[in-house]
Amino acid sequence: MIEKWKLLKKVNADQKLNDAARRVMFFLLDRENNKTKKLFPSHARLSDDTGLSRSSIKRGVANLINNGYLTRLKKGYVGRATEYQINYHVSHSEKGIIIEPKGVHN
């Protein structure tokens, strides 16, 4: 749980992220399965959760992916949501985005 709060704090402080990305991340963290880390909310579900339009959800998700906080594992299609992975150990440097492997902590 602490790991989720730390990431949410980092996301909220990141000025490269738009407001939609911040709101989407809050609900992605809430919807992620704590044991399996599986995450596959539809844009419609995220729209209901956040109160944002589907186009804002798409922009927020894209913003999170482009900044390394989220990875698309499996693209969805009609009737099947996209599967995502939250990257808890992401950092930014002059060289770009660095995602530490699981189990590696600072």
Written description of the protein model:
It is a single chain. The radius of gyration is 13 Å and the shape is globular. With 106 residues, the chain is α+β, with helices and mostly antiparallel strands. Helix 2 packs across helix 4 (54-66). Strand 3 and strand 4 form a beta hairpin. The strands form two sheets. Strands 1-2 form a two-stranded antiparallel ribbon. The protein starts with a helix and ends in a 7-residue tail after the last strand. The chain is built from four helices and four strands. The chain has a single domain, classed as Winged helix-like DNA-binding domain superfamily/Winged helix DNA-binding domain (Arc Repressor Mutant, subunit A, Orthogonal Bundle).
Output mean pLDDT: 89
Oligomer: single chain
Strand order of the largest sheet: 1-2
CATH architectural designation: Orthogonal Bundle
SS element count, helices: 4
The helix content is 40-55%
| Apparent shape | globular
| CATH-defined topology | Arc Repressor Mutant, subunit A
Estimate what percentage of residues fall within beta strands: 15-25%
End-to-end span in angstroms?
17 Å
Number of domains: 1
Secondary structure category? alpha+beta
- CATH superfamily membership: Winged helix-like DNA-binding domain superfamily/Winged helix DNA-binding domain
User: Number of DSSP strands?
Assistant: 4
Spatial extent as radius of gyration: 13 Å
- Which segments are poorly predicted (pLDDT under 50) over 5 or more consecutive residues? none
The CATH class label is: Mainly Alpha
How would you sum up this structure in a few lines?
This protein is α+β, with helices and mostly antiparallel strands. It has helices at residues 2-13, 19-31, 43-50, 54-66; strands spanning 70-74, 83-86, 90-93, 96-99.
